[in-house]
Amino acid sequence: MELRPEDRDSKEQPRALSNGQDIVIVNTALIMKAMQNVQKAQADFQDLLERAELGDTSLQFDLGLRYASGDGVDVDMSQAFYWFGQAAESGDLRAIDALGRCYQNGDGVEADPVRAAELFRQAAEEGYAGALCDLGLCYESGDGVEADPVRAAELYLQAAEQDYAPAQCNLGVCYLNGIGVETDPVQAAEWLRRAADLGFARAQSILGVCYENGTGVEQDPERAVELYRQAADQGYAPALCDLGLCYENANGVAEDKVQAAECYRKAAEQDYAPAMCNLAVCYLNGIGVEEDMAQAVAWFQKAVEGGSARAKSILGDFYLDGRGVEQDKERALSLYRESAADGYLPAICSLGLCYETGDGVAEDKAQAVEWYTRAAEGGYAPAQTNLAYCFLTGIGMEAAPEKAIPWLEKAAEQGQARAQSLLGSCYRDGDGVEADAAQAAEWYGKAAKQNYPPAMCSLGLAFELGEGLTEDPAKAVYWYTKAAGEGYAPAQTNLAVCLLNGTGAERSAEEAVGWLEKAVEQEFPRAQGILGDLLLTGNGVPEDKARAVELYRAAAKGGYVPAMCDLGLCYENGDGVEEDLRHAVLWYRKSAEEGYAPGQCNLAVCYLNGNGVERDAAAAVRWLEKAEIGRASCRE
């Protein structure tokens, strides 16, 4: 790993130049010492080999270890297996256990889990702690024997009582997860503590998690960091990764993003997939390192190769959007599916969204609901919200707002802003729940505090109208402004209307036009319609009737009913468009059929006067009656 300048030795020798060449000053004493150490290891190995070959059975196991570890000789697992076998024949329990591991892992011999278990049992029957633990692991995983979690826990206990740290750690994990024993976090923490006190890195790391979460012990983030550091100092990758998280989130230690990234890197260089993923996220967002999309993608890909479900999901997002990689939706779906198969809830939810929108896969809303349901039942708040929205709007099912409410409540309790905002709207409109304006405002407030623009806008409207809280136009403008600043078109439009009318702010048609233009850029129909009104009359903006008609047409196409009526009026009066009474009637009728009283009234006048339609007094009366009913409803 390349060192940063501040990591290098501050006493680095200055470089001298000679004939244009750099002179490298070498510490020959250190090199000679290293060479001597290598030569001594080789000599010791040769002596060990000669004595073992002469039949010194006490050295055969050690010789096997040398071959296995490459101490004084190149690693050679076939030779290691041979010498472990020789030592095992003389009854060396260590060798019998090591030979079992060779069979278990296929080191120097073809893998044979049944033979491995037999050897572990042979040494375990003599009470050898390592073999008791290894045999326990076989029973826990069903490797070479029929799975038997209870027997596994019993074997771990026998080895743990001999102060064998790996068995103590395994037994602690059994108590944490209820493997062969009743779940007992306190017992788990005690066995983990014993193993941690013996310096066993895995136990230190898991015990750190217990202290971080308050599992079986009183929550103590600082103690968690101590334990992570102890294990990290031994190079234990999971602990390095957890320590990095503590530095990143200032949990039990002062925030240090650079140190976090460094911890992730050390663990990632050991091929620890979660750390690879975390390091990729650092490069993605510039956390403790310079932002670097290429590095982020490279580490995500490595993490995917390492089996990280989270990395698969995030890299799937990249391929779906063509972010940092060439867009490949088929690859995105494949990654989502792999991640979903691992049970990763965000990927399951993403699959649902792809099916809902037909993104990279044939649209199948019923299938979308199935994926959302699976992730929602796993407790994933965004999926719970998406599922609730399907119930609210009838996506992939019959609309059932009352079934949406429990899912929204679950997600809202987890702090999911969109769920809180939707729940507020349900209470406001009485959709699936009894209408309660105060409850609506409360939920909008919770989501607004998380800067969720739709909720900020809805809270502004509640203040403007005095729904569920005291009417306060200034506060309405405050929340509209916050949401508008986030680019939320409905809030930009509401703020513009306040500025036009002097509601909670000084009148300013010019400022209103600025906000409307921003919303129009997003093709927001209401903003198009209102800006059309201003352009038609030259209010706060130079008169431009032709553009007004364009905006009315766009707004009408977007379903904004007042614009349909306004477009009809332009056709009737020849404002910004050639006069065409039949087109006027067409647009009046469209707005009238949507229940828009001004459109109904204008259509009635057309029937009375025969403008663009044959005179029909009865039809005129019918539309006038509808318009009056509509106005009465509005007054109520």
Task: Give a verbal description of the structure.
The protein has 636 residues and is an all-alpha fold. Helices cover 69% and strands 1% of the residues. It contains 33 helices and two strands. A two-stranded antiparallel ribbon has the order 1-2. The longest helix has 26 residues, at 28-53. 48% of the residues are buried. The model is unreliable at 1-36 and 632-636 (pLDDT under 50).
Unreliable runs: 1-36, 632-636
Distance between the termini: 73 Å
Q: How would you sum up the global shape?
A: elongated
Radius of gyration, rounded?
A: 36 Å
The helix/strand class is mainly alpha
Mean residue pLDDT = 91
Give the strand tally.
2
User: Helix tally?
Assistant: 33
List the helices and strands and how they pair.
Blueprint lengths: L16 E2 L2 E2 L5 H26 L6 H10 L7 H13 L3 H13 L7 H12 L4 H13 L7 H12 L4 H13 L7 H13 L3 H13 L7 H12 L4 H13 L7 H12 L4 H13 L7 H13 L3 H13 L7 H13 L3 H13 L7 H13 L3 H13 L7 H13 L3 H13 L7 H12 L4 H13 L7 H13 L3 H13 L7 H13 L3 H13 L7 H13 L3 H13 L7 H13 L3 H13 L7 H19 L1
Antiparallel strand pairs: 1-2
Helix pairs in contact: 1-2, 2-3, 3-4, 4-5, 5-6, 6-7, 7-8, 8-9, 9-10, 10-11, 11-12, 12-13, 13-14, 14-15, 15-16, 16-17, 17-18, 18-19, 19-20, 20-21, 21-22, 22-23, 23-24, 24-25, 25-26, 26-27, 27-28, 28-29, 29-30, 30-31, 31-32, 32-33
